[in-house]
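Internal ticket #5521
Category: modeling
Description: The requester needs a full-assembly model to guide mutagenesis choices. All entity lines are attached below as received. Residue total reported by intake: 218.
Assigned to: D.W.
Attached entities:
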Amino acid sequence: TRANSGRARSITPAVTMTAKTSLLKVILLGDGGVGKSSLMNRYVTNKFDTHLFHTIGVEFLNKELEVDAHQVTLQIWDTAGQERFRSLRTPFYRGSDCCLLTFSVDDNQSFLNLGNWKKEFIYYADVKEPEKFPFVVLGNKLDVTERQVTSEEAQQWCQENGGHPYYETSAKDATNVAVAFEEAVRRVLASDERTDHLIPTDTVKLHRKPRSATTCCS
Ligand SMILES: Nc1nc2c(ncn2[C@@H]2O[C@H](COP(=O)(O)OP(=O)(O)OP(=O)(O)O)[C@@H](O)[C@H]2O)c(=O)[nH]1
């Protein structure tokens, strides 16, 4: 994978093996406190923390997975939802393959802001054909008892704003978290052939000249 292919190997193998892995960038957007960091952490490390700090700027974690026989490296970008961090997060939207628009089912304002998040993403990611871009909507904190947004309202918004898939998740108890990220991957894989995202793995060059001692850095 890209993560461990930093340097060409010096051994000379008998054959060249090339496996194909897709590198997909998925970005989590939504108001501060809706649970974006918690969703990423639950999915990648299977942990949940009740006292997370607000994200400043962006962070990302990679997760390897297989979806419908496709080997995928999912690069999950978690962004700062608070308005004051806007200029720190927007430069990282470009190159995203899927956008997870996230709100919290116990926070109506975060639901009302979904449209603004979508606009911000389309603008800064410079999406040329927004109607074809894969968005997935997540209603997080499904475990809370005091809901402010119903499933019906959320589904209706998804219908009226481009027919996006909708998942209700709980980072706290892990409900639907893996399913939602896998759906994001499926959407991307279905949207085109992804050939530009194929990265060679375990590729070793034959006939490579040995490095001289002075230039060698290993
Ligand atoms: N009950 C419940 N609490 C959650 C859930 N997900 C996150 N939280 C809590 O909500 C708070 C905010 O979670 P974060 O993951 O930091 O939210 P965020 O969207 O990343 O926030 P910013 O970094 O400010 O954009 C934390 O106290 C979490 O423990 C959930 O599914 N259920």
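Resolution: model delivered.
Comment from assignee: DSSP finds six helices and seven strands in the chain.
Ticket closed.
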